[in-house]
Amino acid sequence: MSVEITTLANGMRVVSDSMDAVETVSVGVWVGVGARFERPTENGISHLLEHMAFKGTKRRSALAIAEEMDAVGGHLNAYTSRENTAYYAKVLKDDLALAVDIIADILQHSTLDEEELERERAVIIQEINQANDTPDEVVFDRFQETAFPGQAIGRPVLGSVDLVRGIGRDTIAQYMADHYSAERMVLSAAGRVDHGRLVELAEEKFRDLPARTDHIREHAQYAGGDSRENKDLEQVQLVIGFEGLPFEDPDFFASSVFSTAFGGGMSSRLFQEVREKRGLAYSVYSFHSSYFDGGLFGIYAGTGEAEVRELVPVVCDELQKICENVTDQEIERARAQIKAGILMSMESTSSRCEQKARQILVYGRPLTVEEVVKKVVAVDAAAVRNFASRLKSSTPTLAALGPIGQLESFDQVSKRLSN
Predict the structure, then answer these.
(1) Is the dihedral of CA 160, 180, 55, 87 positive or negative?
(2) Cα separation of 399 and 145, whole Å?
(3) pLDDT at 378
């Protein structure tokens, strides 16, 4: 078996996925904390901490971190989501120890220097402003906020300019101490890696982690509703959706098949009807996002001011049709797309590394490829119809941004979706 997992004495889980045919290894630490763990006054702190981790430790300056990784031709990066923060690298197989050492160093010994904080705060403010100038990013944040109003899971990962300006060094250090513990971390590696050696490195390099921290994650409470802003843009940015499913829901794989069949490819009903037959949008697709305790199903489209009047009824009508009569051919095609995506991702060390880490955080164990494919292939028309029925039982969520004068009212859209 190529996948092995070990739990260290401090609670950190170490997983490896061996690939003997490659000369590289992807390795990283996935921390089970993200934006949904933030207090309202701290919104954006998870992302700010992710940036600051690279700005110097007791042993390395920010420049030294970059130089050491560049010296071996490696790549070092990170990201923050609503439920996880990841710090990862890709290196040649002989440089695994260096990569683990650097990641361990930044996660345990970051100095959070005040001068570096001021510089990075300015960088993140530019990142926020850039996102705010990107309408298709803004509309997704509005969709999330409307679906989960007044909750951490509904707030943007980047936070706001005012909040980021007000987060000080001590607050970041306390947040890190409160959330970055061994039991909430997974060290994952995929590629040319020996599991025993990886465990040795983990035991040696991650000795200074606190074993356990107490934390509270508020339960996600979906609400739904309407968010729209009339703005001088070339297009209407539109997202319409419903409450989705958590990762461990029995209908999780059915939700993926449904979303793929409806709007996941060029042959999907949504793409064919909206773009190919009617020319109402360049970009149109459906998606399903899952969390530990909830989820969102949505349909995105970017369309013109005049076209939105026709587009919304078409989208609602197509959704009604597939909920009532999804075909075996559509299901078979969607399953094939998902299966191909899973198998293709197995050729990437980075994908395999991330998949195993995320699976452990969600399910407590790595899943085999055969197990996942089997669950996808087992989805039939009855399972898809059951998901569709559950989908439409929730209040819709609508977010729109741009020249929305021709967009129907929320009540009108809700009626179309409930017929």
Answers:
(1) negative
(2) 9
(3) 96
Q: Decide: helix, strand or coil at residue 76.
A: strand
Nearest to 151 by CA among 12, 293, 7, 18: 293
Closest CA to 188 of 103, 287, 110: 103
219: β partners: none
At residue 167, the 3 state secondary structure works out as coil
CA 128, chain centre distance (Å) = 18
Residue (of 247, 41, 287) closest to 152 by Cα position: 41
Helices and strands per DSSP (H, E), number in the chain? 16, 11
Tell me if 84 sits within 8 A of 34, measured CB to CB. Answer: yes
**Cα 327 from Cα 332, distance rounded (Å):** 9
CA atoms within 13 A on the CB side of 258: 32
Beta strand ranges found along 39-108 (DSSP E): 75-80, 85-92
Reference 160, options 274, 38, 50; nearest CA is 38
- Say how far apart CA 29 and CA 106 lie, in whole Å: 11
Length of the chain: 419
Give me 89's structure tokens: 């690298």
Q: How far apart are CA 145 and CA 139, in angstroms?
A: 10
Give the type of residue at 39: R
- Phi, psi (degrees; rounded to nearest 5) at 160: -115, 160
Q: Quick one: how far is CA 35 from the chain centroid?
A: 11
Residue 138, phi then psi, degrees to nearest 5: -60, -45
Tell me if residue 382 falls in helix, strand or coil.
Answer: helix
**Catalytic annotation, pick one of 42, 50, 83, 145:** 50
Radius of gyration (Cα) for the chain, nearest Å?
Answer: 23
Cα–Cα distance list, 330 to 164, 344, 364 (Å): 46, 21, 33
In this structure, which long-range contacts are made by residues 276-281, counting pairs with CB atoms below 8 Å and at least 24 apart in sequence? 278/310, 278/314, 280/307, 280/310, 280/311, 280/314, 281/307, 281/311
- Give me the residues of the chain with pLDDT under 70, please: 1, 214-215
Predicted TM-score of the model (pTM): 0.95
* Residue 4 falls in the annotated catalytic set: no
Residue with tokens 């149109």: 284
pLDDT number for residue 217 = 76
Cβ–Cβ < 8 Å for 25, 192: yes
The residue whose two tokens read 């009339």 is 230
Spatial distance between the Cα atoms of 30 and 87, rounded to a whole number of angstroms: 7
